[in-house]
Amino acid sequence: MSWVAGKLAIIGWPVSHSRSPLIHNYWLAAQGLPPLYEAYPIDPKDDFRAALRGMADAGFVGANVTVPHKEAAFAAMDALSPAAQILGAVNTISFENGRLQGDNTDGDGFLAGLDAASQRGAPDGNWQNAPALVLGAGGAARAIIAALGRAGIDDIRLVNRTRDKAEALSGLAPHIAIGDWQDRAALADGCGLLVNTTSLGMTGQPPLEMPLDGLKSGALVSDIVYTPLHTPLLRAAQASGYIAVDGLGMLLHQAALSFEIWTGMRPHIDDKLRALLVTDLAEKD
Ligand code: NAP
């Protein structure tokens, strides 16, 4: 192994709920390494660049970044990957001899999760040859929309409760049509992919009302909410014969891509890790 092992972290505020330490320490253990990955809270009131310098001095070699620091991380980097540049947000930092390299694995992680699910459920993978409907225009939606554009979807339909926020994302992919939130059922017509990126359906939030009957046969229904894991949307999708893709796919695959950036090794997403996460989610939420 050529990687020089060093400390890793997830930066956020709050961050104690994060499952990233569980995931990355599982992969480190598989390499015979100690649990080098920790939750690292940074108060938004503090100087973010100074906090990163402190981490470099303390021997950190890599960090994930979550809410609310992805844009601050973007602004603090010395160099950025194309994905981070497009999104204006960084979720993966590499500390390279005093230099900060920023990347964003959220979009490719989402696509990898979809690919894995579609290979399990729909071997013809035909979601890529049909329109896609995305619900929501928050931070996660940005990465997902740009990734769907990279995947070649030439009819991306985007609706958000606050239409202006959806309009602001229309440059992220070549073929985006913005619709009204109340028209979402009609816009699902003929879609091979539906993605919920809103927080609706999450524990403590209102339910998502979304009829599914217009979707193409064999369509993928993805809900990136993972608390609960089996959201009402995914249950309805399964009951109607669609392929349900839960939020763990994106969570695990974006993590795997970050791990590979730091270590050069693509970790294995196995059933045991997934089961550990399912148990952890059930215990804490
Ligand atoms: P965010 O930036 O706060 O965006 C929230 C989105 O939900 C916005 O589009 C917002 O619409 C919409 N929304 C909230 N309440 C609504 C309501 N009552 N009716 C209609 N729309 C509503 O959040 P985010 O960071 O993108 O995260 C969104 C969800 O994805 C969260 O549940 C998060 O846990 C999950 N997530 C999962 C992963 C994963 O790896 N699986 C990764 C990231 C996020 P407005 O613009 O109108 O407010």
At a glance:
This protein has helices spanning 20-30, 48-57, 70-76, 82-87, 106-121, 139-150, 163-167, 184-187, 232-239, 248-263, 271-284, and strands spanning 7-12, 37-41, 60-65, 79-80, 92-96, 99-103, 132-135, 156-160, 176-180, 193-196, 220-223, 243-245. With 285 residues, the chain is of the alpha/beta class. The chain folds into two domains: 7-104 and 250-284, Leucine Dehydrogenase, chain A, domain 1 (Rossmann fold), CATH 3.40.50; 107-246, Rossmann fold.
Record keyword descriptors for this entry.
Rossmann fold, 285 residues, 11 helices, binds NADP nicotinamide-adenine-dinucleotide phosphate, 6-stranded mixed β-sheet, 2 domains, alpha/beta, 6-stranded parallel β-sheet
Bound molecules: NADP nicotinamide-adenine-dinucleotide phosphate
**Apparent shape:** globular
CATH fold-type name of the largest domain: Rossmann fold
Structural class: alpha/beta
CATH architecture of the largest domain: 3-Layer(aba) Sandwich
Count of DSSP H/I helices = 11
Q: Provide the domain count.
A: 2
Q: Strand portion, in percent? A: 15-25%
Order of helices and strands: EHEHEHEHEEHEHEHEHEEHEHH
Rg calculated over all Cα atoms? 19 Å
Task: Count every beta strand, where a strand is a DSSP E run of 2 or more residues.
Answer: 12
What portion of residues is helical?
Answer: 25-40%
CATH superfamily of the largest domain: NAD(P)-binding Rossmann-like Domain
Question: Tell me about the biggest sheet?
Answer: 6 strands, mixed
Uncertain residue ranges: none
Measured between the Cα atoms of the first and last residue, the distance is: 37 Å
Name of the CATH first level of the largest domain: Alpha Beta
Please give the order of strands in the largest beta sheet: 2-1-3-5-6-4
Mean pLDDT: 95
